[in-house]
Amino acid sequence: MTHDDARVLLSAVADGEAATTPDLDAHLASCAECAAYASGIARLSTLAAALPREPAPALAPRRARGPRRLVRWVPALAVATAAAVALTVLPAGDATFPAPPAAAAEPLRRLRSVYLERTVTGADGEAFERIWFRAPASLRIERSVDGGPVETRIETPGTVYADGAVTTGAPPAIPLPEPLSPTVSLLGRDLGPGPVVAGRATRRVVLAVGEERREAFVDVERALALGGDEVLVLTKLSSTVTKRVTRVDVDPAIPDDLFTPPASAPRDDAGFVRGDLGDLAPRALPRGFEPVLVGRGPDGESALYADGSLPLLVTSRPIPQDDRAATTTRTRGERTYLVHLRLYAPPEVELARDGLAIRIQAPLPVDSLIDLAERMYAE
Amino acid sequence: MTRDADDFDAVVRDHSDAVYGFVLRRVGVRATAEDLAQETFLRAWRARRSLREVEAVRAWLLSIALNVVRDDARRRSRRVAEVPQPEHLDVPALGDDPADRAAGTESLAALRDALAALPARHREMFLLRERDGLSYAAIASLLDCPIGSVMSGLSRARARLLEAVR
């Protein structure tokens, strides 16, 4: 038996992958070097076990930093845009009042723009999405499935580009991209610590509304992180769909043309006309909120207000029959409010006034929404 | 493997170091390794019902990790780094941990340096065996080589490492 043969066998014997043989025993009895090798294997194992490992991340968020120094003009532009809209569409109220407590959504006031990438994996394959958002109401989503063609959706106040066509005069909607929705903080149930990644603690949160249920590993700062350098990144798991944010840039500079639909796309008129509110006009607005898009469409009146990226939508449209909505009631004084909760959409409260169903939607706690309704539509 | 989410979390906890280290040794960049390790567990979660041998969880996870790394390399249109930088060997610099001192800091440092100097394939065999506890068959499957190559490769790796720590 050669030295090499003996050492290969000794190594395998030490690992329990081979049994010793008479030839090997005889070789060891006469070869001090191979005997030292045999005893050294155990020492090597001890040393290898003592080697420190890199701490491993797991199914959890990563932190990301946005290029903040590039975007000083963005807040000014947002304010200027809001002011311009305010000049063309008169504010509905003649007074303001302090906004109610909204700790979970407070950083949205400071968020001016965000870019994020994510993968969405489900029964249809794996989709890759790129999302641009700029306060107060511009959103672009590019989506491709399994490397196929890119589908683009663009939303700006009053205009929606989707399926290759532009809908002008579209009623306003809250355009917050799903991963930034503070709904997880408002509606989620905290189940305790999640994994730690890059030294950053997470919480496991379950969102359960109606028949829908999602799990998320959320930065402990949750939505509070939205306005700062540390960014909320969700990894959502369910039996059917996994949505995983892979990159987030906070407050990047986003050029206007990303929110411009192709000029060649056919256009439809949704019939929404900007203008003063009638029956929907609130008596007052919370301080800091400016009108983004206000007017009337075939289904009723709508008004989108925003304070930074914190949106407030008021509509008089009928309640859609949405099976994901969980409707409950809440009483404040002599008024009864209907409460509508949906996954990844801000809560909504509804009150009856002059024969109209007025709905107020914002990423705020339900009690805060009712506070708003009490002030905006006082009897 | 259990199909219960809580038990899967335990699997993640038990094997995340091994998966992350395995990926890091191949991509050499921590941020990328984090992403790919995460992707590995997501794929494992979706494919958890395909696991037949509970004892082979780690080998199963590492085989998924290998596919994830390869897929990522294809997406990036570049080859997977076969020889990562020494600082990304999943063997970080030694600190003041009492366990380090007990085991002999000098020997550990020598072992770390010797590991970095090993041929990548032999280093991988050694770490998969000593750190991750994989069987020869599992190592052979992961590295796509005969079991005999694993036996000889491990033997040579140990010989080189022993010389370094004497």
Task: Write structural notes for this entry.
The complex is a heterodimer of chains A (379) and B (166). Chain A contains 6 helices and 22 strands. Chain A is an alpha+beta fold. In chain A, α1 packs parallel to α3. Chain A has helices spanning 3-14, 22-30, 32-50, 73-88, 183-187, 366-376, and strands at residues 96-97, 113-122, 125-134, 138-145, 151-156, 159-162, 165-168, 189-193, 202-209, 212-219, 235-237, 242-250, 267-269, 273-274, 285-286, 290-297, 300-307, 310-315, 326-332, 335-342, 345-353, 356-361. In chain A, the strands form 3 sheets. A 12-stranded mixed beta sheet of chain A has the order 8-9-10-11-12-2-3-4-5-6-7-13. Chain B starts with a helix and ends with a helix. Chain B has helices at 5-27, 30-46, 57-76, 98-103, 105-117, 120-130, 136-143, 147-165. Chain B has 8 helices and no strands. Chain B is an all-alpha fold and 166 residues long. Chains A and B meet through α1, α3 and β12 of A and α1, α2, α4, α5 and α6 of B.
Concise account of the structure shown:
Chain A is about 20% helix and about 35% strand. With about 375 residues, chain A is α+β, with helices and mostly antiparallel strands.
Mean residue pLDDT of chain B: 75
Structural class of chain A: alpha+beta
Number of helices of chain B: 8
Radius of gyration of chain B: 16 Å
As an assembly, this protein is heterodimer
Distance between the termini of chain B: 42 Å
Q: Span from first to last CA of chain A?
A: 100 Å
Kindly report the average pLDDT value of chain A: 76
**Counting H and I runs of at least 4 residues, what is the number of helices of chain A?**
6
Counted beta strands of chain A:
22
List keywords for this structure.
heterodimer; A: 379 residues; 8-stranded antiparallel sheet; B: 166 residues; mainly alpha; 8 helices; 70% helix; globular
